[in-house]
Amino acid sequence: MANTASPIGFKYSACSLGQPLFFEIPRIPQATPYSYTSILSDKDNRLFITNDKDVYIYDGANTQQVKVNGKPTLAFDGHDRIIIAGYNYLSLLTHNPSGGYTNNQLIDPSANSFPHQITSIGFDDSKNIYLCTGSKLWRYSEKPIPIDSSNQIITIYTTSNGLVFYSVEKGFYCLNGNKPQ
Fold first, then answer.
1. Structural contact between residues 49 and 31, judged by C-beta atoms closer than 8 angstroms
2. Residues 89, 109 contacting (CB under 8 angstroms)
3. Three-state SS for 94?
4. Distance between CA atoms of 76 and 117, rounded to whole angstroms?
5. d(CA 16, CA 65)
6. Is the Cα dihedral 130, 94, 21, 29 positive or negative?
7. Residues of the chain with pLDDT under 70
8. What is the pLDDT of residues 23-55, one digit of tens each?
9. Residue 138 contacts residue 130 (beta carbons within 8 Å)
10. How many Å is the Cα radius of gyration of the chain?
11. In Å, what is the CA distance from 178 to each residue of 49, 160, 170, 175?
């Protein structure tokens, strides 16, 4: 396993024992800082960086590119699972004992079974996957199941109290047994 990102300077001082204030990250191939759309960090301090078409996983020394159809979006359950979504694409990464991730393709882009751009995604407290495709809200259970729709775009937010959904039409709301409340 490669090293985690390290702070600039103060290599062996007490200042480097906590989270660094600055990271020196090499340029991600085929991406510029202006096109990054989201960055998240897993429990091993690997960075998952998206741009308008791909996901890059950076472990402090190496970069791995994950090709995604459409514009990718990410979610982390806070423990051991990361979801990557795009157009007709849904992949679940599960942390494995070797320190890496096992990839489980939930929606295979070659099958063209879900011709929608996933715009927002999240895990609820029970580790269920929820996704939005613009104005439709879905729950993934072996396949995407529509559970709500709006005249406006629905966005998923992860909070300390679970998932919260938002649309201009309905405002902020939660789900109670897959029904908006």
1. yes
2. yes
3. strand
4. 19
5. 29
6. negative
7. 1-34, 178-179, 181
8. 555 566 555 555 777 788 888 888 888 888 888
9. yes
10. 18
11. 31, 19, 16, 5
